[in-house]
Amino acid sequence: MKKVTLITGGSRSGKSRYAQTIAMRYGGTRIFVATAEPVDEEMRARIRKHQAERAELFTTIEEPYDIGSAIASLPPGTDVAIVDCLTVWLGNLMYRNERCDVTAPPIQRLLGILDDPPCDVILVTNEVGMGIVPDSEMARRYRDLAGHLNQAVAQKADRVAFMVSGIPVMIKGEKD
Amino acid sequence: MKKVTLITGGSRSGKSRYAQTIAMRYGGTRIFVATAEPVDEEMRARIRKHQAERAELFTTIEEPYDIGSAIASLPPGTDVAIVDCLTVWLGNLMYRNERCDVTAPPIQRLLGILDDPPCDVILVTNEVGMGIVPDSEMARRYRDLAGHLNQAVAQKADRVAFMVSGIPVMIKGEKD
Amino acid sequence: MKKVTLITGGSRSGKSRYAQTIAMRYGGTRIFVATAEPVDEEMRARIRKHQAERAELFTTIEEPYDIGSAIASLPPGTDVAIVDCLTVWLGNLMYRNERCDVTAPPIQRLLGILDDPPCDVILVTNEVGMGIVPDSEMARRYRDLAGHLNQAVAQKADRVAFMVSGIPVMIKGEKD
Fold first, then answer.
1. Are C12 and B154 in contact (CB < 8 Å)?
2. Which residues have C-beta within 8 Å of that of residue C27, sequence separation ≥ 6?
3. Are A71 and A115 in contact (CB under 8 A)?
4. pLDDT class for C48, splitting at 50, 70, 90?
5. How far is the alpha carbon of C97 from chain A, nearest alpha carbon, in Å?
6. Disulfide: which of A38, B146, C64, C158 matches C37 by Cβ 3.0-4.6 Å?
7. C167: Cβ contacts below 8 Å, ≥ 6 apart
8. Most confident among A96-105, B34-43, B66-75, C39-48 (mean pLDDT)
9. Of the candidates C172, A174, A19, A172, which has an alpha carbon nearest to the alpha carbon of residue B164?
């Protein structure tokens, strides 16, 4: 069985770097599934910076919506795939359909493929529910959805790391 | 001595479900002290959904203000009580008295009863202080109060679980 | 080698109190480097309250900008210094220069001195990235900077404690 790892934590807590550190232990073909869609210059700059940092180490696939199908159709022989990140992806889904919840087909496709993925998968997500309740109803909906998705993915994952100040705290499974 | 358990974590991190999982290990009489007051349709829908989910497993008592007295006067023979949740309760108290702090009588009554509760008690709360400082002075007051209360309850608790993505991380005491 | 301890966590999670508890195990000279600058009455009240609480136990040095140099020039014979806190300090730096990042000279001076500090140092910081993405671009910049700094300091620290509801969870190194 292939191994599923979830890496969660706050913003700028070292999640992506830790995902890449784990993935670099694999020889062969490493795929990076990038979920971000550049909607403004600030994001374009972030995306360019991140792509430059991982160039030559990963083959990047950009997939802002249907990441379950993207994982299902990874090239044969892929050793490991990073999905970075689930919370940005949820933002894309809600931008298309504000009322979406965990029963939405793209979310169900992701959860389905995680039961038997074609290669080891490392998913990056964010903890977004430890601040005060947001004023905006859409923000409350978003953090509900993110929390529900994180729970569902963590349940399927073999390992879950919670990042705090760059330190991976294993809260499910063992470090390699 | 009866056992006090505190379950904390972000929004939608699986706190209530974990509280109910623990409580279901008890036979006999299980009480659910619900602190939420429906103030709008969004909340009424959440409350109805939660009540339906636990029907037949728990006897529900609604007590938005004086949860210390509610615990003190639980029916004899109660085996376990869940209080869900402290942060909503603090919101109710502040709605009545914006300046309230941990010295407020209802808070002191709760802290007092936790020294020697009539049955095992499982309290659910939220981590609300890991976002950026809120703009609103009242929101800052609220998160100060929630932080102080969480510390005071955690100190009295035999066990504290910190929920991350649905996973209980024991940070005080041991899992059953 | 002198020991560096980082204490992180949400607001009102008991970080400062835990820093002082650790520092009180030292005899001799204890210094408290306070980074807060009172900009309004709310802050002045908080600062006065905190100073009163630690009077006679610590010698306080107020340094809102150049805390690296403040540590480098501590009086000979200092046994332990608390820096409380890094996130307030970052706010001061950004108030002077909104575009500042971890390459800013005061930040580099702090990181440099932590490689070989003149005494044991206990730094207090905040987790600020576990809420939803802030609307304000400056707030996003601030939480990026705080996250990057926390990672850099945690990497240099011998011990990192993550505070949750007043409970120190050691995520790097061991408790004394």
1. no
2. C79
3. no
4. confident
5. 19
6. C64
7. B154, B160, B171, B172, C14
8. B66-75
9. A172
Residue C170 is encoded by which pair of tokens? 């050691």
Residues B7/B127, Cβ–Cβ less than 8 Å: no
A50 annotated active-site:
yes
Nearest to A33 by CA among A115, A152, A113: A113
pTM: 0.95
What are C60-90's pLDDT values in tens digits? 999 999 999 999 999 999 999 999 999 999 9
Alpha-carbon gap, residue A48 to A32, rounded angstroms: 14
**B164 → closest Cβ in A148, A155, A171:** A171
Record: contact A128-B14, CB cut-off 8 A: no
ipTM above 0.90, yes or no: yes
Compute φ and ψ for C33, nearest 5 degrees: -95, 105
User: What are the two backbone dihedrals, phi and then psi, of residue A80, each rounded to the nearest 5 degrees?
Assistant: -155, 145
Using an 8 Å CB-CB cutoff, list chain C residues near A131.
Answer: 130-132
Contacting chains of B (3 CB pairs or more, <8 Å) are A, C
Indicate yes or no: CB of B142 within 8 angstroms of CB of A132. Answer: yes
**Cβ A162–B166 below 8 Å, yes or no?**
no
Q: Name chain B contacts of C167, Cβ cutoff 8 Å.
A: 154, 160, 171-172
Q: What distance in Å separates residue A81's CA from the closest CA in chain C?
A: 25
Contacts of C148 in chain A (CB under 8 A): 12
The predicted-structure confidence for B109-129, as pLDDT tens digits, reads as follows 999 999 999 999 999 999 999
Residue C17: other Cβ atoms inside 10 A: 15
Asked if C118 and C71 touch (Cβ cutoff 8 Å), the reply is: yes
Structure tokens at C100: 């500042």
Supply the pLDDT for residue B47.
82
The answer to whether the Cβ–Cβ distance between B129 and C14 falls below 8 Å is: no
Using a CB-CB cut-off of 8 Å, the residues of chain A touching C143 are 11-12
pLDDT in tens, A3-44: 999 999 999 999 999 999 999 999 889 999 999 988 788 878
Chain C, nearest residue to B170 by Cα: C169
Question: Given this model, what pLDDT does residue B106 score?
Answer: 97
Question: How far A11 CA sits from the closest chain C CA (Å)?
Answer: 5
Catalytic residues of B: 50
pLDDT band at B54 (very low <50, low <70, confident <90, very high): confident
- B8 DSSP β-pair partners: B162
Residues in chain B closer than 8 A to C42 (CB atoms): 137
Task: Give the span between the Cα atoms of C31 and C121, in whole angstroms.
Answer: 10
Contact A144 B169 (CB under 8 A): no
pLDDT at C53 over 90: no
Percent of chain A whose predicted confidence (pLDDT) is above 90: 82
